[in-house]
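Go through this chain for my students:
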Amino acid sequence: MVDWYNTFRNFFGYFMIVPYVKEKTYNDMVMLNYVFLGLLFLLGTLILYVGMSINKGPNGLNRPLFIVKLSFDVLNYVLFYPIVDLFLCFFRCKADANGIWFHKYYTDVQCYTGNNLIHVFTAVVGIMIIVSFSYFQNIIYFESRFKTHLTNLKVSGRDEIKFMLF
């Protein structure tokens, strides 16, 4: 049974970001965390731009709307779990014999003190942003009530959200 567990864990590890980052330094993981957080903020800025410009008319918004839809699809279906796993990596700490918490992968980094506390806070913000983006994308693009004249819509987006959260 343990062999199957390790086999599946190694196989699905190829699709995650953390197994590649934990071989690097702690600063590389922090940098990658802020790169993904910056991409989420750029996506949020693009959403605000589209939302404020839609009042002028949808004529010049074809490219921004396409970019928003494409980034939501990539974020929701490809990068959701790897990015959330990267954000949650800051919480992977274990206590030593003295009761001091150190990071699981980077044993020289003390958890929940100093700069690590700032990285943990930004990871929580990143998790809240990516979950809310996925929530709103599923609610907007997958109608919660079935409409027969729109055949491309799913019956409900709520099941998709429950699947992503749990």
User: Anything to note?
Assistant: The chain has one domain: 2-165. DSSP finds seven helices and two strands in the chain. The first strand starts at residue 93 and ends at 95. The helical segments are 2-13, 18-21, 26-53, 62-77, 80-88, 115-141, 158-165.
